[in-house]
Amino acid sequence: MSQSNTPVPLLDLKAQYATIRQEIREAIDNVIESQYFILGPEVAALEEEIAAYSQCKFGIGVSSGTDALLISLMAIDLKPGDEVVTTPYTFFATAGSIARLGAKPVFVDIDPVTYNIDPSGIEAAITERTRAILPVHLYGQMADVDPIMEIARRHNLLVIEDAAQAIGSEYKGRRAGSVGHLGTFSFFPSKNLGAFGDGGMVTANDPALADRVKLLRNHGYRPKYYNKVVGGNFRLDAIQAAVLRVKLKHLDQWSQARRQNAETYRRLFDESGLVVDSVEELDRKPAVLLPREAPESRHIYNQFVIRIPNRDAVKTALKEDGIGSEIYYPVPLHLQECFAELAHHAGDFPASEKAAAQTLALPIYPELTEHMQRAVVTAITHHLHP
Ligand SMILES: *Cc1c(COP(=O)(O)O)cnc(C)c1O
Which pLDDT tens digit goes with each residue over 173-217? Predict the structure, then answer.
């Protein structure tokens, strides 16, 4: 076992905080002095800024990315027994939110190259109970939204984009969250725009839908204590909004640094001579498949995810070297115990299952140095040959 000299964490939030400490402390202090902690002017300002950043008319700050999904599905009045078409290869909350409303997630397998839902499988999954399509922009690259919107139009369905990992990413110049009827974002600390706790945002262009989300966010009352619909507490804190407003000013630069790091990985892995071009080649020899950028998209690399045949062994060896990596996600959602009643089996969504077995996310955060990236590539190259 080789011992790498350079420990490399998967993510180093302290390194980022060190560059903005003063600005952040002032912003938080302003909120403390105002003693205005829930919603209010900081949240309203953030909503406008995120909406503008995401090329949307409206932004509604909410309590998390999960709640952004849940409240969006509530806003379209999703009912028990309704169906929503989505991907099984995503974070649990995507399908969990559908199930929490008594509706049924109907899975469609992914494109093995981009890891996003394969639009060519969507039409066959639509029934008379289908209400919406919920594509996920996984790892920071937008799903193929043009055909998805076209299918939705033909079948009179709504589209909710799960953009939790994709703030600022683009598809033919259009930003994540601006294409569908609603877009959902997460400010979980490890996302490209991370709060100092939980937070999220829903984006919309339709005023009626945006208003519906806003109503539901605060118990469905309007005016106060006169409840029109059953909503909940989905509110965003002013301190989180203040932190996010500071960070938003740096986001383009951070996303650019992530893209730059991705380029550096490509160069370093190319030098290793282990890179292959297709998933099939991985079956034949120990090699590395790098993430693919679709020509129409601007990837923001919330994650830099490679594929390797002996993934679990390599991950363990990297850990011994002090190099962080993570599996997003080890069990596709159709095989999760909680969805047993959907009666899926191994083999139902082969591209998702194979991705779950072979993908590994490497450190890609903006403050990463080339020296550290070289240590990651050297270690992987070394461990790939068992
Ligand atoms: C992070 C994430 C969520 C949930 O966001 P939280 O803020 O953690 O609730 C939902 N969907 C995807 C794809 C995510 O990556």
Answer: 999 999 999 999 999 999 999 999 999 999 999 999 999 999 999
Ligand 1 geometric centre to CA of 94 (Å): 8
- Please indicate whether residue 130, judged by its CB atom, sits closer than 6 Å to ligand 1: no
- Taking only the tens place, the pLDDT of each residue in 369-382 is 999 999 999 999 99
Q: Which residue has the tokens 């995503």?
A: 90
> Measured from the CB, is residue 161 less than 6 Å from ligand 1?
no
- In the chain, residues under CATH classification 3.90.1150.10 are 251-384
pLDDT in tens, 196-208: 999 999 999 999 9
> 188: Cβ below 6 Å to ligand 1?
yes
Q: Please report the DSSP string for 196-217 in residue order.
A: SS--EEEEES-HHHHHHHHHHH
Domain 14-108+115-248 has CATH 3.40.640.10: yes
Domain with CATH 3.40.640.10 in the chain: 14-108+115-248
pLDDT the model gives residue 1: 44
Does residue 236 contact residue 62 with C-beta atoms inside 8 Å? yes
Residue nearest to atom 3 of ligand 1 (CA): 65
What sign results for the dihedral spanned by CA atoms 132, 79, 348, 293?
positive
164 lines ligand 1 (CB under 6 A): yes
Q: Nearest residue CA, atom 7 of ligand 1?
A: 65
Q: Ligand 1 within 6 A of 93 CB?
A: yes
Does a cis peptide bond (omega within 30 degrees of 0) precede residue 223?
A: yes
The string of pLDDT tens digits covering residues 29-64 is: 999 999 999 999 999 999 999 999 999 999 999 999
Q: Taking the complete model, does pTM exceed 0.90, yes or no? A: yes
**R_g over Cα of the chain:** 21
pLDDT-derived band at 386 (thresholds 50, 70, 90) equals: low
What CATH superfamily classification does 251-384 receive?
Answer: Aspartate Aminotransferase, domain 1 (3.90.1150.10)
Task: Find out whether 60 and 206 touch, Cβ atoms under 8 Å.
Answer: no
Tokens coding 275: 């890179």
Q: Report yes or no: 202 and 55 within 8 Å, Cβ to Cβ.
A: no
Cα–Cα distance, 285 to 190 (Å, whole number): 33
Which residues make Cβ contacts (< 8 Å) with residue 93, sequence separation at least 6?
A: 65, 66, 69, 164
